[in-house]
Amino acid sequence: MLDLGRTFLQSVERSPNALALVDGDLQLTYVQWHRIILNVADGLRELGLVRGDRLLVVLQNRWEMATLHWACQFAGIVIVPLNWRAKPEELDYCVTDAGVKAIVYEPVCADAVVQSPAARNVSRIGLDDAQGRTTTFDALLVERERSGPTTQTTKATADDCSLILYTSGTTGKAKGVPRRHRHERAGALAHVAQNLYRHGERTLGVMPLYHTMGVRSLLSMAMVDGLFVCVRRWNSRLALESISKHKLTCLYLVPTLYHDLLADAEFAKVDTSSVTKLGFAGAPMNDGLLKRLSAAFKPELFVNHYGSSEVYTFSIDQNATKKPGSAGRAGINTRLRVVKLDAKSPDDFAQVSEEGQIIADLLGDEAFEGYWNRPDADAKSLRDGWYFTGDTGYFDEDGDLYVSGRVDDMIISGGENISPVDIESVLSLHPSVDEVAVAGVKDERWGQRVVAFIKRREYVDAETLDTWCRTSDLVNFKRPRDYVFVDDIPKSPVGKILRRKLSAGEYQRDETTPIAQHTETTKE
């Protein structure tokens, strides 16, 4: 299999003058970008980084971030992208855990770098006059003499490590997920195939390049000689302008960002007709948002992608609106099972429609091989050649997968296992509900009480929503026992609902209108 450096060379050779990268006023063709990438790769080597060394990159989605990703692939250096919002202790942990040799950062995250003891012991490459730097990014861009053709400048093989992604770490320390060039290339090829990307597609580069969705967008555009338009920080107005100006053809976002696009007052005025393919991942999309997006964009393809950093694709549904909530079936490179919630073996299958834990075959081409320096995490998640995802779900009678949440998010009320996703889907269809999240709150009698947290589009009270649930097909024991109206639903940087914050009371109530609350003390 080709390594990722040679993969990029394919596009340089096929379409040298095609537009490859846009960041504000900067526009680069493939041949122009390739030259810059080689300069940066050489600059990293001059700093002393060699094949297999780790480079920590703490940047927003700017052209330098995308360039560094590709430069590392050419140089055989392992890129370790980190959330630019990382706190000093998080950055310090990753510097030490990954054993990085250098850090690239910008002013917005300079304080975290400066306050990290571990960072003081490595080279610090600063952008835009970032404090604490030992050299500048501009120093990497200097043109250098090269002997031989540029095709000889790739130093990696398909078996080399491409990057280490740090998972968000909902509990405890984040876990490093090392992925080889062949894992990443297989994931990008599958992304192209499963989203039916054509030659010359154009996408919005807004999903963070420290997240698997952002990396996949970057790699897949190179696979099809396409265009990657950088969006440094999410802004729905800028995103709409980018779609219109650059005639973007495909979007791959988390549901939250789609919600923001539709909510922008300028949406109806902007020409988005060039977008023919929608894809989403990172979190389930509720029925209400699915219907609104389908009506607004009228896409020829609407893909629900379910995956993770560890195994990029679990399942794919290329017609997301046909069976709302369905995650479809196993992806091109994947085998899936649902086993019982307390299963110790991958052969302890759950029955059809029985909720269990979703697991994936580690022999899949996109699957990682184990966590970085975390034998404890390996022992918990890797069993007999299968990856136990920690996600709950079930197969329906047609063989389609439904993802119901996380094992840790499961609400256990009165001995019943209750998934938040089913309840959220029902409530999302009410016209007055803008966003909804359901979580379990401690209850002396029931163990946990089902509570719906609602961000309103327009005024609605708890009694009205309770009637809505009673007249739906939602079984009675899943019906919320409380409704709390909030200003915003807490989410991670990539749009995942943080139910643990809701359960812990970490939210701001919506006090703009009188709040009616519905409470039950008996379980029907």
Give an overview in words:
The structure is a single chain. This protein is of the alpha/beta class and 524 residues long. The chain has a domain at 410-503: ANL, C-terminal domain (GMP Synthetase, Chain A, domain 3). The chain contains 14 helices and 26 strands. It has helices spanning 4-14, 30-46, 63-75, 88-98, 110-114, 181-194, 212-223, 236-246, 255-263, 287-297, 375-381, 420-428, 462-470, 499-503, and strands at residues 19-23, 26-29, 54-58, 78-81, 102-105, 123-126, 135-136, 161-166, 176-180, 202-205, 227-230, 250-253, 277-280, 301-306, 315-317, 326-330, 336-339, 356-361, 382-383, 386-395, 401-406, 411-413, 416-418, 433-443, 447-456, 482-485. The longest helix has 17 residues, at 30-46. This is Feruloyl-CoA synthetase. It comes from Caballeronia choica.
Name given to the CATH architecture of the domain at 410-503: 2-Layer Sandwich
Shape: globular
Q: What is the CATH homologous superfamily assignment of the domain at 410-503?
A: ANL, C-terminal domain
Tell me the distance between the termini.
Answer: 59 Å
β-strand percent reads 15-25%
Number of strands: 26
The major beta sheet can be summarized as: 10 strands, mixed
Whole-angstrom Rg? 23 Å
**Mean pLDDT, as a whole number?**
91
Poorly predicted spans: 515-524
The helix fraction, in percent, is 25-40%
Output the structural class.
Answer: alpha/beta
Count of helix runs: 14
Q: What is the fold-level CATH name, i.e. the topology of the domain at 410-503?
A: GMP Synthetase, Chain A, domain 3
Question: Which CATH class of the domain at 410-503?
Answer: Alpha Beta
Family: Belongs to the ATP-dependent AMP-binding enzyme family.
Domain AMP-binding enzyme C-terminal: 423-496
Keywords: Ligase
Protein name: Feruloyl-CoA synthetase
